[in-house]
């Protein structure tokens, strides 16, 4: 189960051996494919019996322990609760700043998770539904415009603007309106996602080019300035002034930025910083807290839109490719949501109606199985061992980057049987749920580091499906990549059009751009249906 080429000194031949291993693994896949497709291929190529193995291809990557066995995955993220690996922080620092909630560990992580948790309470999320419906209607309007022009567009770009608009409200109570016009903070964010080490393995110098370094610094400033201004404005409001007893403060919405300010005020009450603060006029926020709050808001803006947008794209894609599933979801909407015209208002008036859309939820769950947007990366610890569920033998984690690639787990035939690669939403119906493999489905991970935004993502995905599948026919247009090639998006980069362009016949394979995104942003044609 240990795959490495280690002939001993001189190190040069070891590096050459590692390059050869990676070269032979990568030769059958498109250059830009998301690394999470690789573990299953390694297993097959090297006849590895277990569903976990060590891979050491230093210096191309950290020594790794790949895990796509459900039981071992559960040990890694839940039972042993291994901490986040430092590479996560190296990645997130460019998007969020130092100490973000996704990559940090220990008391700092715990503090911020506790502060932000109320923002994801079920009652609060339901109150967001009308706003999400409004944003989704703008998305539908954009689809009508694309249909009228008969043009091919990148669905992922549209879905991203939608999810960004939603997350703007959730985090900052702001209408970013990126579906209507560009927004400087979002533009900086989008560029930053493309400047982080996505294709690092292919281009190790990518992070060291002066132009890239400058752009990352500039984007960081734009994002900090924008969010900092919103934070300061909210802090300056009369009802936010620290030192005022909590009961006397006006009840605020549970948006992230206010939750952070609330925490700040509670923390300050009676403390040293409060004394310093009440003496300044107007009161000023402690600089360290301000920096940390901006980092967390940036974290939520990133984590809260990137993953959900690609899930929306893949759900619409899988429905196109599976007409019987499309018929069934449309029928469910006919039965529960009335006519296409009245559905948006119906959902706004009674958000709980979403709970009746069982099959729609199954479509989203199955989409997340086949096309998971993320994975889990942990750091091994001295003396902390994983245990083989079959043999009971223990193996070390120390010095390894422990990776649970959800794609490999969710498509592992040992876990999901012969239908591992088949789109079958009905496996998630209540009557079939007992047959689901234990711990084999974890698109949002499990345990204390599970996804804080999962319920919000599921609400968003169901709403957008409820408002689109009966109104539009979507058709992926990978046959016409030239048409959107001048749209100025990152996907338009011609470098990636060379060489192999499908993964075992699948053209819409995932690539790594922040999270797992559809290749080329999923070029699409759309027609209005009703
Ligand atoms: C379909 C959409 C989404 C998917 C597939 C997804 C997936 C995940 C996964 C797998 C993790 C755990 C990563 C790990 O264990 O290393 C995670 C964590 C996280 N997600 Fe999501 N996510 C989604 C949507 C969202 C949304 C909408 C938000 C915010 C509004 C969000 C915010 C976060 C945050 C802050 C964390 C870190 C939590 C912690 O460590 O305490 N995610 N997500």
What does this structure look like?
The protein is of the alpha+beta class and 530 residues long. It has a single domain (2-528), classed as Orthogonal Bundle (Cytochrome p450), CATH 1.10.630.10. 48% of the residues lie in helices and 9% in strands. It is built from 19 helices and twelve strands. It has helices at 11-26, 38-45, 70-79, 86-95, 106-116, 122-127, 129-149, 155-172, 184-195, 210-236, 256-268, 272-278, 287-321, 323-337, 343-349, 358-370, 406-410, 413-416, 454-468; strands at 2-4, 52-56, 64-67, 153-154, 376-379, 385-387, 394-396, 401-404, 472-476, 510-513, 515-518, 523-528. The strands form four sheets. The chain has a five-stranded mixed sheet with strand order 1-2-3-8-5. It has a three-stranded antiparallel sheet with strand order 4-12-9. Helix 7 (129-149) crosses helix 19, helix 8 runs antiparallel to helix 13 and helix 13 packs across helix 16 (358-370). The longest helix is centred in the middle third of the chain and has 35 residues, at 287-321. The chain is globular. The termini are far apart. Bound molecules: protoporphyrin IX containing FE. Keywords: Heme, Iron, Metal-binding, Monooxygenase, Oxidoreductase, Signal. Pfam families: p450. Heme binds at residue 451. This is Cytochrome P450. Pathway: Secondary metabolite biosynthesis.
Q: Tell me which CATH architecture applies here.
A: Orthogonal Bundle
Overall mean pLDDT: 88
Strand content: 5-15%
Main beta sheet strand tally, sense and closure = 5 strands, mixed
Helical content (DSSP H or I, runs of 4+): 40-55%
Q: What is the CATH T-level topology?
A: Cytochrome p450
Number of strands: 12
Number of domains: 1
Bound molecules: protoporphyrin IX containing FE
What separation lies between the terminal Cα atoms? 55 Å
Low-confidence stretches: 8-12, 272-279
Query: Could you name the CATH homologous superfamily?
Result: Cytochrome P450
CATH class: Mainly Alpha
User: What is the general shape?
Assistant: globular
Q: Report strand order across the widest sheet.
A: 1-2-3-8-5
Number of helices: 19
CA radius of gyration is 24 Å
Q: Give the class from helix and strand content and strand pairing.
A: alpha+beta
